[in-house]
């Protein structure tokens, strides 16, 4: 079972050189000009051409060998429980496996699979604080798991939200997975959460686990959560007219997940592009779930939305990085000075018919991951889960 990853013990300077392509994660400028990235003490300090940057004093040098560097991928919708184990499938090391799929940050949509999960107000608040503390301390493989997302119940009052926020809780679990399933109650509690800086997500579509139920467009729109969780269902999606109504009726985040309805995912993408609202689309897996764990779930979503959704690959990667970082107010997800030095180094898979990594993704192939880096520290090298990359980076000095 994966435990705490090593952290930097002193001043550090990472230099990634000989980069073939830098994908920024930002829709407004998805490709950056440069072949080198410098990070000091876990933060990006420079991006550009090797000859123009100060690379002296590096504690780690990575030769990208002409491959592609992207921001670390963000899974906007996971259901962690305890450490790197999920009782839903009785599987261990699922977070570490996701790291091998390029995931460097995860956002909890509720620790709903906890055996004996408390429904009383005291218990659910205690569990939220525990999960927030435990996962921020643990970091399996170095992955940043933002957890402690309570599932709200009808007995809660404003003071409960104030108390949770004061104790570090910054997320709500999916509204609708607990006793609160109606619009007026949800809107009131979402308002309390927002007042105290807690971000909210709502279950959308048909029931996905025992205890959940149908949440339709009327409840979604009235609740007005910050993120419309799995708008393509988890697994059962709403009818197209309701999805369109949600897209047009609010300006909140539109989350598409791997464990949802794929046709509805493509429909949501099309509506968002028609509206000029691609910046609202973020990606999650909604795992672990009944369908299992998806270590490559975000990569598969990027590939599907690019190939079948006819979205340029460099933009598809933004949905899994910069869009989510901005929506979730994270310091990662974008390759820009001052951001966390979280990267995935990848290349087109061996024998892909695509001539470049972008072309191969637009043809529906998954890239091969050669390295993941979190907070400026190399966490994995050649992925054990993706297809082998055509070229791989290497640590040449440390």
UniProtKB/TrEMBL annotation:
SUPFAM superfamilies recorded for this chain?
Composite domain of metallo-dependent hydrolases (SSF51338), Metallo-dependent hydrolases (SSF51556)
Q: Which PANTHER family match?
A: COLLAPSIN RESPONSE MEDIATOR PROTEIN, HYDRANTOINASE/DIHYDROPYRIMIDINASE FAMILY MEMBER
Query: What InterPro entries does the entry give?
Result: Amidohydro-rel, Metal-dep_hydrolase_composite, Metal_Hydrolase, Metallo-dep_Hydrolases_sf
- Domain Amidohydrolase-related, which positions? 268-376
Could you tell me which Pfam families the record lists for this protein? Amidohydro_1 (PF01979)
Q: Which Gene3D superfamilies match?
A: Metal-dependent hydrolases, Urease, subunit C, domain 1
Q: Which cofactor does it need?
A: Zn(2+)
User: What is the protein name for this chain?
Assistant: Amidohydrolase family protein
């Amino acid at each position: 079972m994966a435990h705490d990853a090593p952290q930097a013990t002193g001043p550090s300077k990472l230099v990634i050189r000989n980069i073939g392509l830098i994908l920024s994660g930002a829709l407004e400028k998805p490709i950056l000009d440069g072949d080198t990235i410098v990070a000091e003490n876990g933060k990006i300090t420079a991006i550009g051409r090797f000859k123009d940057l100060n690379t002296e004093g590096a504690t780690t040098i990575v030769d990208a060998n002409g491959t592609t560097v992207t921001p670390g991928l963000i899974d906007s919708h996971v259901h962690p429980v305890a450490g790197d184990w999920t009782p839903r499938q009785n599987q261990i090391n699922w977070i570490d496996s996701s790291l091998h799929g390029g995931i460097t940050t995860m956002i909890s949509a509720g620790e709903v699979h906890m055996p004996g999960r408390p429904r009383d107000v005291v218990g659910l608040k205690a569990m939220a604080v525990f999960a927030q503390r435990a996962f921020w301390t643990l970091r399996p493989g170095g992955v940043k798991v933002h957890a402690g997302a309570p599932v709200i119940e009808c007995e809660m009052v404003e003071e409960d939200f104030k108390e949770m926020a004061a104790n570090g809780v910054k997320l709500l679990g999916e509204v609708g997975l607990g006793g609160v399933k109606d619009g007026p109650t949800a809107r009131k509690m979402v308002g309390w959460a927002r007042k105290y800086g807690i971000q909210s997500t709502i279950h959308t579509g048909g029931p996905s686990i025992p205890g959940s139920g149908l949440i339709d467009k009327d409840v979604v729109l009235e609740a007005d959560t910050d993120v419309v969780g799995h708008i393509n269902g988890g697994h059962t999606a709403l009818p197209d007219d309701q999805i369109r109504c949600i897209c047009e009726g609010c300006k909140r985040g539109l989350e598409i997940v791997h464990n949802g309805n794929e046709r509805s995912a493509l429909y949501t993408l099309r509506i968002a592009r028609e509206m000029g609202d691609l910046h609202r689309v973020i990606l999650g897996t909604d795992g672990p779930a009944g369908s299992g764990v998806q270590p490559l779930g975000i990569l598969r979503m990027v590939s599907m939305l690019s190939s079948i959704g006819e979205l340029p690959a460099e933009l598809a990667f933004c949905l899994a990085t910069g869009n989510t970082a901005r929506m979730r107010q994270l310091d990662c997800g974008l390759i820009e000075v001052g951001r966390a030095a979280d990267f995935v180094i990848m290349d087109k898979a061996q024998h892909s018919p695509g001539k470049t990594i972008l072309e191969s993704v637009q043809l529906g192939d998954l890239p091969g991951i050669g390295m993941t880096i979190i907070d400026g520290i190399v966490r994995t090298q050649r992925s054990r889960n993706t297809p082998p990359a055509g070229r791989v980076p290497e640590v040449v000095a440390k």
